[in-house]
């Protein structure tokens, strides 16, 4: 469908284009001129044709008339000649040749001797009489004499034109036979005529230079012929062709209208001819004139039309340029993202600009204003946008109109007539007004705002991020400085967040962070800032403090209370507390970095002092921070400095009281601090990554020790080694374990690795896969600190483990705390259901031991039996156990 529309649109456009082209003068003018030229030349040729026909008809008539006249004249001449010959013949027959001519001449019956010579020849051909007189000659040899002598008739015969014997002049001979009284041949009468006599009627005025009057014999031999002044004879002409209506003939290379008439009683034809060229000369002249006139008219027409065409073409080009410019402008303005308002300035009598009239707009303007083009056009600016008089727009329009230049600005739009939140204005001067180009930049502004927001806010919680916290803190410090006020910076870290994140997954962790963030925001004042520093760390910037820690404590406790409220994640309620460290400006620092660092140190102190509490910064805290850094540095060299040692805590069967295994526990013999428990350095080793190398050393040391005890002939026991998250994540864990077993020679079945529940739950699939790999080597796996994580029963079933260890936090108050008792029983029952061994750690009292034993717990570990001790002491225990009776309590 769109294609069809396009085609129709195209054909309409093409049609209108051709229509427009057809109406262009520079197109119609040459066509009109061609028509005019055609008409001129058609008329000219038509006129010439008519003239030619008329000239030809005139020539034919003229030659007809000439022939008629000539025929009559020659006929008269011939009749006279015939009569003269008859009279002479009669006179000779009657009176004899001697006196006949004289007598006739005396009576004036003979023609003029100037033209005619009349001779009488006797029967022998001798000229016996002649007028005018001349020397006697004989014509006996002449053909005409012989014809008459031999032919009895007395008809006049016409001879050929030939030279006269006497004078040598050309003469046409007419002859007649003379008979004697007996009718016998007595001679002939000869009348010689100058041939010019028969063409004397030639009029040069009428017949021109090439006309013809001729007397031609029926035999085609010319007797007399005149063309111009020239008289000729003797030529042969196919005279039969000339008999009849006048026609064009050419016997001597000259085209003539000619016609011939048969002369009555004589074998002669009177031929009249008029030269075609001469007859048509006038016509030709007129034809040339006509052609010249038409040519001149055409040339003038062409020149004038060319000038007019050039002028029209230039005009059309100019119009086309203007039209294209208009079309381009219209298309550009329609396709433009900008709204156009062409505004004409209205001036008062003094020339001051009073208002602006909207002259034209585009469709974008309609969209921007919600008004149609018709509504907008002719509208006065102040009527439509009265606010423009007060918000500076009118003043800018006026300034640009009067002084020129360009005004460009981005404005936050408050005018409801324009449907955009943000506008970009560009105003340029035009004749008598301005063009305002207005673009809706709301989307761009929104995107910019979003980018700025994203750059300064945490994407998860929407809280200010580290950079904005820093900025707010800087402003709060400046404000505090000016107004002599304190600023509190509180560093908040969620306790046990890692457990939630690792146990329930990142999505649950994110949900928890969002919920906690929103609760914190709900606790503070409008001008306070709650920001997320990263991970589970939050920062409060609390300006306008009045040197009252108790008031601040109320707020911070409120936050603590809000955070600790349970959050339902994945359908189960989860509780996290938070540790808060506070630093005060100006007491604890005068710049954001120092304040944040000190608040962080205070927060660590809060963690160290049991979590879920608030600590205000003291200088001593920084000392512990420095201490931490020093410990980290010491850890780097401790391994090579052989400062580590491993102690072993026995694991005992509750049923028999026999040691069946030991847990390897690391100690650091610090060069300055003495023996250090792992709680003080394992987290640092974990943080710095040193735990991987240290853990590998513990593993090898423990395996070697286990093998050493066996080599001493002692009953083999299980050696349990702790694996931290960083160690477990190490891609080479399996290889390291295999290496330790190989180096030590310990059978894998005597090695047990203890991993925590939360460690496995971080990435259940991968953890289980790795555990299976270890189990496939023959190693046992045990879940340490069970009950503190969030593993589901379904997940637990998939773990390739052999035992669970009840965390000592549930054992500690077993005697008094019914909740811990319930938990311990539940874990024991769960182990039984999953067919796992269960061991309780931290057993310090006989009551705890009895409760566990009665509840079905298999094994125990704790100070009640033994603290972690040197390997030599374990050796003693094992040796003693070999032949000892079962302990007393185990019998109970
Ligand atoms: N990744 C590694 N972690 C290790 C290694 N060595 C130790 N640790 C971990 O350090 C934590 C603290 O250990 P420690 O200070 O040695 O404490 C252990 C015992 O001494 C203590 N314990 C044992 N019985 C009792 C008791 O009756 N009361 C009481 N208050 N404490 C007792 O418990 C710790 C053993 O706990 P657990 O590991 O959960 O079995 C500790 O978490 C160790 O895991 C190491 O080489 N690598």
From TrEMBL:
* Biological process, per Gene Ontology: cellular response to nitric oxide
Q: Residue limits of the GGDEF domain?
A: 485-619
Give the transmembrane ranges.
26-48, 294-313
CDD domains per the UniProt record, alphabetical = EAL, GGDEF, PDC1_DGC_like, PDC2_DGC_like
Please list the residue ranges annotated as the EAL domain: 628-882
Task: Name the coiled-coil region(s).
Answer: none
Asked if the keyword Repressor belongs to this entry, the reply reads no
Spell out the reaction equation it catalyses. 3',3'-c-di-GMP + H2O = 5'-phosphoguanylyl(3'->5')guanosine + H(+)
Gene Ontology CC, one term: plasma membrane
Please state where this protein is localized: Cell membrane
Keyword vocabulary terms for this entry: Cell membrane, Membrane, Transmembrane, Transmembrane helix
Name the chain's protein.
EAL domain-containing protein
Question: What organism is the protein native to?
Answer: Pseudoduganella ginsengisoli
């Amino acid at each position: 469908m769109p294609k069809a529309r396009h085609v129709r649109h195209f054909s309409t456009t093409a049609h209108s284009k051709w229509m427009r082209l057809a109406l262009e003068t520079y197109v119609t003018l040459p066509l009109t001129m061609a028509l005019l030229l055609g008409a001129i030349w058609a008329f000219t040729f038509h006129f010439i044709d008519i003239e030619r026909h008329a000239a030809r008809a005139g020539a034919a008539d003229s030659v007809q008339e000439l022939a008629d006249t000539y025929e009559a004249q020659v006929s008269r001449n011939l009749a006279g000649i015939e009569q003269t010959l008859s009279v002479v013949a009669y006179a000779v027959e009657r009176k004899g040749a001697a006196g006949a001519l004289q007598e006739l001449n005396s009576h004036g019956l003979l023609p003029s001797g100037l033209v005619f010579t009349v001779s009488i020849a006797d029967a022998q051909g001798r000229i016996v009489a002649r007028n005018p007189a001349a020397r006697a000659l004989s014509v006996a040899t002449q053909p005409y004499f012989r014809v008459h002598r031999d032919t009895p008739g007395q008809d006049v015969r016409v001879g050929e034109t030939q030279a006269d014997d006497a004078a040598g002049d050309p003469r046409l001979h007419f002859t007649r036979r003379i008979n004697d009284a007996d009718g016998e041949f007595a001679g002939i009468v000869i009348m010689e005529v100058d041939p010019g006599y028969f063409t004397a009627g030639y009029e040069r005025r009428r017949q021109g230079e090439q006309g013809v009057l001729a007397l031609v014999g029926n035999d085609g031999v010319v007797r007399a012929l005149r063309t111009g002044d020239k008289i000729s004879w003797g030529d042969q002409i196919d005279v039969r062709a000339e008999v009849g209506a006048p026609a064009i003939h050419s016997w001597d290379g000259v085209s003539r209208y000619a016609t011939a008439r048969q002369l009555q009683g004589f074998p002669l034809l009177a031929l009249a001819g008029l030269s075609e060229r001469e007859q048509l000369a006038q016509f030709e002249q007129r034809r040339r004139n006509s052609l010249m006139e038409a040519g001149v008219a055409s040339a003038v027409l062409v020149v004038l039309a060319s000038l007019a065409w050039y002028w029209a073409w230039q005009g059309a080009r100019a119009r086309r340029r203007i039209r294209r410019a208009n079309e381009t402008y219209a298309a550009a303005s329609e396709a433009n993202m900008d709204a156009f308002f062409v505004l004409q300035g209205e001036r008062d009598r003094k020339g001051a600009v009073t208002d602006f009239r909207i002259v034209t707009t585009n469709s974008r303007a309609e969209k921007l204003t919600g008004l149609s083009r018709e509504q907008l056009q002719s509208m006065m600016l102040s009527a439509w946008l009265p606010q423009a008089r007060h918000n500076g727009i009118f003043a800018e329009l006026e300034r640009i109109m009067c002084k020129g230049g360009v005004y460009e600005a981005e404005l936050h739009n408050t005018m409801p007539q324009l449907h955009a939140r943000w506008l970009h204005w560009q105003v340029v001067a035009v004749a008598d007004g301005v063009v305002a180009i207005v673009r809706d930049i709301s989307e761009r502004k929104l995107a910019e705002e979003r980018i700025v927001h994203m750059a300064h806010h945490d994407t998860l919680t929407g809280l200010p991020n580290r950079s904005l916290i820093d900025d707010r803190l800087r402003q709060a410090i400046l404000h505090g400085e000016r107004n002599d006020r304190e600023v509190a910076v509180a560093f908040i870290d969620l306790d046990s967040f890692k457990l939630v994140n690792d146990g329930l997954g990142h999505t649950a962790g994110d949900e928890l962070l969002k919920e906690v963030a929103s609760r914190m925001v709900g606790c503070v004042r409008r001008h306070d800032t709650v920001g997320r520093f990263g991970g589970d760390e939050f920062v409060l910037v609390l300006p306008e403090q009045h040197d009252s820690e108790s008031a601040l404590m109320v707020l911070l406790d409120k936050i603590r209370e809000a955070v600790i409220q349970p959050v339902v994640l994945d359908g189960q309620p989860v509780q996290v507390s938070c540790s808060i460290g506070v630093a005060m400006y100006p007491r604890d620092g005068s710049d954001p970095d120092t304040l944040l660092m000190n608040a962080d140190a205070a927060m660590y102190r809060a963690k160290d002092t049991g979590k879920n509490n608030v600590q205000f910064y003291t200088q001593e805290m920084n000392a512990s921070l420095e201490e931490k850094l020093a410990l980290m540095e010491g850890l780097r060299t401790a391994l090579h400095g052989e400062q580590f040692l491993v102690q072993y805590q026995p694991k005992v069967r509750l049923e028999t009281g026999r040691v069946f295994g030991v847990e390897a526990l690391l100690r650091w013999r610090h060069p300055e601090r003495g023996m250090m428990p792992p709680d003080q350095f394992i987290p640092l080793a974990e943080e710095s990554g040193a735990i991987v190398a240290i853990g590998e050393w513990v593993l090898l040391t423990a395996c070697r020790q286990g093998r050493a005890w066996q080599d001493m002939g002692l009953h083999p026991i299980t050696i349990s080694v702790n694996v931290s998250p960083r160690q477990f994540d190490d891609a080479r864990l399996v290889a390291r374990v295999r290496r330790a077993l190989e180096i030590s020679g310990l059978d894998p079945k005597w090695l047990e690795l203890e991993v925590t529940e939360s460690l496995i739950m971080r990435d259940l699939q991968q953890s289980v896969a790795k555990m299976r790999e270890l189990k496939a080597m023959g190693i046992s796996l045990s879940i340490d600190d069970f009950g503190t994580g969030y593993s589901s029963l379904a997940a637990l079933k998939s773990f390739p483990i052999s035992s669970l260890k009840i965390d000592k936090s549930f054992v500690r108050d077993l005697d008094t705390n019914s909740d811990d008792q319930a938990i311990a029983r539940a874990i024991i029952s769960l182990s039984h259901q999953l067919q796992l061994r269960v061991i309780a750690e931290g057993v310090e009292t006989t009551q705890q031991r009895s409760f566990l034993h009665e509840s079905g717990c298999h094994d125990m570990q704790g100070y009640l039996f033994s603290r972690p001790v040197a390997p030599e002491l374990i050796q003693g225990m094992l040796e003693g156990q070999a032949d000892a009776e079962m302990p007393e309590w185990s019998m109970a």
